[in-house]
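Can anyone check this?
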Amino acid sequence: MVRGAQQGQQRKHQTFLAYESEVTLKGCPKPLRQIIMKDHGRAEPTFVLTNNRAMELVEILSVYARRWRIENKLAELVDFFHLNALSSPIMVRIFFDLLLSVIASLLYRRFAQDLPRFEKKLAPDLFRHFVDMPGRVRFDGRDFEVRIRKRAHTPILLGVKKLQEAIAIPWLKGRRLKITFTS
């Protein structure tokens, strides 16, 4: 058993236990390198099979960690943005659905950067806490006002300077949008 550490990472679980061995799979002529990792933040151990014998253990796990982040992002797109329920069998519309899903994901990510303690939250959590709430839109002929009832996470939104000022909307001839929190 080897105790490893991920170098240059600012992670919650900076050390982990890893066990390395060779395994032979049925139908595979050469043995594979098997890495079993635990104490890395998940309840169950993680198994990695590779035929790469040249890379260091930490380097292999770093490569796989990046791949897992991509897979987790794709899982979020499928689950939250319903990417597996595309609107049309026509290829152009499928690309458009994919493009809109990626843009929506990016907007949630950007929104999270302004929210203290929520910077690393996924889109479903951000939606539940900050987006999915009742409100009223008023238009006085010149500007828009969105009136939102205060909720548990409203103080976090009140701390975002960008939301305290009226926002000019270029595609509506510069009309302004003001967000107001009510009781």
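Reply from J.R.: I decoded it. The beta strands are 2-5, 15-23, 32-38, 46-50, 135-139, 144-149, 167-169, 175-182.
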